[in-house]
Amino acid sequence: MLIVAEHYAGSDTGRQRRANEDSVLARSPLFVVADGMGGAQAGEVASKIAVEAFQHGLPSGTEPELELAELAQEANSRIHELSHENAEQAGMGTTLTAVYVGESEIAIAHVGDSRAYCLRDGELLKLTDDHSLVDELIRQGRLTPEEAVEHPQRSVITRALGPEGTVEVDTRSFRARAGDVYLVCSDGLTTMLSEEEIAGLLSSRPTLREAGEALIAAANAAGGRDNITVVLLRVGEAGDGHEPGPVEDHVTMTGMPAVSVPPLEPASGSQARVPRAPSPAAAAVTRRPRRIRHAGAITVLVVLLGLVGVGAYIAMESVYFIGTNSRGLVTLYRGLPYQLPGNLNLYSSTFVSGVSASTLSAERQRTLLDHTLRSEGSGAALVRSLELGQIE
After folding, report:
1. Helix (H) or strand (E) holding 223
2. Is the peptide bond before 206 cis (omega within 30 degrees of 0)?
3. Residue 325 has what DSSP assignment?
4. Which range is least confidently modeled, 107-111, 139-143, 342-346?
5. How remote is the C-alpha of 227 from its chain's centroid?
6. Alpha-carbon distance 171 to 191, whole Å?
């Protein structure tokens, strides 16, 4: 029979958000992470409602998948009703990933782009599928995982609790082994760290608390663009000498320290090659032609870069596309839908609508938020039609 031998729960606001809209419930054998959307007055409320639906555990635990899905549906109904009663919370929603440790299996219920993983024998196994626009495009073969990392609509989710009266909840069961470590997290972790980095930090720390704190610190060190929530649990067999871990409820922590990275040292025994200076006569003969050639090449390069820059500027000023902002609201952008290294965007926001992308059908999201370059008039007309309810 499985037991939870050790667990940890931590949540951090991150470095670029003013409030923490994540909520977490860690009460063995049930662990839940919810990532709210809709701003501090709405997203925080939605995620709190979601975890509160699970605070009393499963009714019987005899059919974990079914009971997890039913609790998720209850949370969805509460969030949806409240969003229609209060104008400040209109359109709010939340992701949900819930993990229940049964006698021999881990049951999972999932909606949105928070995630569940299993670390087994040093390998990190992803147990959930993201309900997001970019993952849908990846599954269709229209986008590579590398392109998805910098996609302007990478924050758009196609399924959440709250926006609709009913929601499809993914459920599955995973046969567990003693020694498995399970990670449940919000996308504030997975958008900052690769799965290889996550696996490395989990494998290199002796306790789950150290591993969890290291994950949060590393996500902050990488930029901390969103709230970061991490839940870790290690399972064991009853009677193997491990006692169940202590009960932990909703935890919120801020101000986690950044990871310090030591400077690179030169390899031992390495020596720099010192070039032999040319004779004065040779220098007199060769120096001037080289300077002329170099000057000519630099001039050509500067002219070409200038032409490219002018062309890019003209394009950025004359084309538009529709996407979403960090709050998931449909937004009209001017420019090209690309981001250069160093987080330099080739686009800027010109109009933010009051329409949450999660309220649109999956088909509408694919056709409307697909990088299509438009004129200002065409883009503005589409956004206006969305706001008037003429497009769903």
Report:
1. none
2. no
3. -
4. 342-346
5. 9
6. 23
- Strands 115-120 and 2-12, by their bridges, are unpaired
Nearest to 330 by CA among 383, 281, 285, 292: 383
Residue type, 172: R
| Residue positions counted in the chain | 392
Per-residue pLDDT of 287-314, as tens digits, reads: 334 343 445 556 656 656 666 555 555 5
CA distance 165 to 167: 7
User: Which letter, b or e, does each residue of 101-136 get, where b requires 16 or more Cβ atoms within 10 Å of its Cβ?
Assistant: bbeebbbbbbbbbbbbbbbeeeebeebbebbbbbbb
- In the chain, the domains with their CATH numbers are 2-237 (3.60.40.10), 292-392 (no CATH)
3-class secondary structure, 115: strand
- Residue 136 token pair: 């849908």
Rounded to 5°, angle at Cα 331 from 344 and 75: 110
Output helix, strand, coil percentages for the chain, rounded to the nearest 5.
35, 25, 40
**Closest Cα to residue 2, out of 197, 240, 210?**
240
Statement: the pTM of the whole predicted model exceeds 0.85: no
Per DSSP, the residues of 257-311 read: PPPP-PPP-PPTT-----PPPPPHHHHHHHHHHHHHHHHHHHHHHHHHHHHHHHH
Biggest distance spanned by C-alpha atoms of the chain: 94
What whole-number distance in Å separates Cα of residue 356 and Cα of residue 92? 8
CB 196 within 8 A of CB 119: no
